[in-house]
């Protein structure tokens, strides 16, 4: 298995860096690598906060479409049950603060991963893309729940349908991210914030997260399962086939 997630310690912070050039597309190996790193964060009592960030030009372009095309015809439900669904649950159930540091593109499943973190700091150059409809799919990875919750129902519908990007400043104004910083300061600001979180009352933070999960996301597991069911339907449509082919062939899709 390729090692596509770098794991480093910075004091009590476990720093996870996506490392799959050029745009950190989520392959099976990357997703499983991230699951493994989060298990490490959960199992190590000396880890008091997690910082999730990315190398290269984007935080992540979401699902690797070359890999998705290669397994065309297989159940997307099965794929989601092995990859993003457990990952999103791990992020929410880890009783330690998780901070996402975002830059460049954040698309599709990567948006779901970013939204499932507790806090988000974004470089001013970040572009958010719901992504799914661009390849004939419906939102998964918790996006159907977390995006309307954070930016509002009408706005989430608009951005899911149009697939137009929104900026870091818009994300800040709409409550999708907590802070925006100049791109060149992202690394240091994110680490400083993660270290501040690591110095806080860990048990209280964990219990706060547990309480928020219960208050706001009590049906998260069901929603993820329903998204997987919906995606299984979407994944069998000609629209999905055309969307993926068009992206990889670098041409606009033709839906009839
Ligand atoms: O069961 C399941 O898994 C279903 C779940 C799906 C979850 C999802 O995540 S669905 C959404 C998937 N993601 C997308 O549809 C996004 C596709 N990518 C883009 O829209 C753009 O590439 C970006 C906005 C992310 C970045 O744009 P830009 O202009 O900075 O870069 P680019 O030129 O488009 O891409 C750079 C290279 O990365 C390019 O390859 P090349 O020409 O240099 O060889 C491009 O093909 C490749 N790339 C970009 N995104 C993906 C990708 N390769 C594989 N998978 C990608 N998602």
Q: Unreliable segments (pLDDT under 50, ≥5 consecutive)?
A: none
The whole-number mean of residue pLDDT values reads 97
Strand residues, percent:
15-25%
CATH topology name, in short, is: 2-enoyl-CoA Hydratase, Chain A, domain 1
Helix count from the secondary structure assignment: 12
Polypeptide structure, described:
This protein has helices spanning 28-43, 65-70, 76-82, 84-93, 109-116, 143-151, 153-162, 168-173, 186-198, 202-216, 220-234, 238-248; strands at residues 5-10, 13-18, 49-54, 98-102, 105-107, 119-123, 127-129, 166-167, 179-181. The protein is an alpha/beta fold and 256 residues long. It has one domain (5-184): 2-enoyl-CoA Hydratase, Chain A, domain 1 (Alpha-Beta Complex), CATH 3.90.226. The strands form two sheets. It has a six-stranded mixed beta sheet with strand order 1-2-3-4-6-9, sandwiched between helices. A three-stranded mixed beta sheet has the order 5-7-8. Strand 1 (5-10) and strand 2 (13-18) form a beta hairpin. Helix 4 runs parallel beside helix 5 and helix 6 (143-151) packs across helix 7 (153-162). Ligand T3D is lined by residues 22-23, 25, 58, 61-66, 68, 76, 79-80, 105, 107-109, 129, 131-132, 134-135, 137, 140, 231, 247.
